[in-house]
Please model this.
Amino acid sequence: MSDRAEGDRVLKSGGERLPLSGIRVLELGRYLAAPLVGQLLGDLGAEVVKIERRGFGDEFRQYGRTFVRDRDGNPTKESAPYVSANRNKRSVEVDLANPDGQRIVRSLARECDIFIENFKVGALDRFELDYASVRAANPGVIYLAISGFGQAGPYARKAATDSAFQAMSGLWDVNGEPEGQPQKIGAPASDYIGGLFGALSVMAALRHRDLHGEGQHIDLSLLDCSIAFLAPRSSEYLIDGTIPSRIGNRTPGTAPGQAFRCSDGHIMVQAGSDQMFATLCGILDRPDIAGDPRFANLQLRQSNVDVLGEALERAFLTRTGREWFDLLSEAGLIVAPIYDVAQCFADPQVQSRGMRVNIPHPGGGSVDVVASPMRFSATPIEHYSCPPPMGEGTDDVLSTWLGYDEAKIAELRASGAV
Model:
């Protein structure tokens, strides 16, 4: 792309001083991992166009139990999970079974810098939207293909979901109480980790293109990402053959480092060093625990962690979690209340960071979303647009990206392509 064309794009987007202003992203993403990549790039200023199946849209729109409500309190067709991963985008509704629809997406692919898809392996080949076909028309394209098991291997064409990747990677097995069953993490961790790795991969590929002038294909497996996420625990096995065990709410490698019951709930405390442990016992007014030879150093505390936990919990039960939080944090110890989500967003630190953002909804009213955690000094992320209604940007994108006039767009609508 020429410098002149790049500058024109930035001006057309309002001249926003964001890191990815002027970058065009075409997202053929459904559910969570691929849409999350698109949202992250959109937060950073890229122009993101989401291709949705005509008449149906991204299946994630109807996923879950909670839906955004309009100004009259009626539920819309946008689920809370969908809203969490699709802000700062435009939606183009296309029928890929229609030859005209296929041509539209191929034309858009020629105009984008980044192409994101998470279809089943090989599913886009018949539409000539595979990497080889897109690259032939757009040599500088960065093509991110997100799949469950990767583009090759015996499981490449198998269907799976976040739960399967958590299960196969070992995440279930290390999660839960020592004597209990394996447990799934209570959020779509594999999908979210895949989205983060996907965005990082795209940024690295953009840098490579800046330096060497060439695009490339990125093969991202959600199982691979889940395995990478577990590296701090799986390294125990890789180094000496020890299979990591479930340790409940304890922090591996330290003691004490776990949840303790208080008079009104639970609190997390970590005081692994000898100095921190002595400070903790002093605040708890339990010199007997500090002087117990079974707890004389970290190695001994880890060996006797069950007995240590029971002794400390008896002390924690004498006060509320807030009282202990104030006392321990003032002493410089690592301590945190164990919140539910409502308590998290009510915390003064969370509120001071602005992690809850209210944005207008196209159906009227507004919706709260979780803000981006990225804080730039020179290019702050300040603009959030609500996830678009299905097909909201069809006419505008076909006009600005492809130069179609009203008559051409009307013809495409009549044919059922859009």
User: Anything to note?
Assistant: The first helix runs from residue 3 to 12.
